[in-house]
Amino acid sequence: MPGNSKLVIIGDGAFAEVAAEYFREESHYQVTGFAVERAYLRKSELLDLPVVALEDVEDEFPPSHHDAFAAITYNELNRLRTRLAAAAKSKGYCLASFVSSHARIAKSATLGEHCFIFEDNVVQPYVTIGDNVILWSGNHIGHHSHVGDNCFIASHVVVSGFCVIGDNCFLGVNGAVANNVTIAKDCWIGPGVVITADSEPGQLFPAAKADASKVAAYRFFKVEA
After folding, report:
1. Which of 85, 138, 178, 218 is placed for a possible disulfide with 70 were both Cys, Cβ 3.0 to 4.6 Å?
2. Closest Cα partner for 127 from 113, 108, 148, 114?
3. Architecture field, domain 98-203
4. pTM of the full predicted structure?
């Protein structure tokens, strides 16, 4: 179980910066540094903290005193985050999770390890969330639903009740999943898409697209350009 007071973050991108601030502001962790694979090591510092090669991370940040969090988004259908978290775990690190104090998690809901749940998420009763799941800001996960391992749910997604979201799925901003629907593993759901029927594994649902009106906004609102 995670229990150390110090944290090393795997990654040096935007999510790593965001995660560091959330961990600093709303957790018991002291973020002490960052790590990336040596082939991608391009900087020696981030946020005034050292960035080291993941291959040597235990020398700088020993797992006896540090937990780890892989701050990677949905690259490679979440497989990159999954692989880097597994690499940290194989080095002896406990994997950290973050749950915002401004999220509403039902007492009967269960969360796996290595999850990051931002503010304004609502996780209703009897929901189960697997390992290595990211819930960005403002989602609704309906009662008795299951979110599988290695998923990334972007902001303001509504998952209705009794749904199943398979492993490694991505759900884009402002999407919705109707009641009693199963999203199979490895599906990519684009922004604004509404899913009303079960999917097959590996399906890609492009973003909902609005076509521009032939009437210009200036004319519609009777204003000058």
Report:
1. 85
2. 108
3. 3 Solenoid (2.160)
4. 0.94
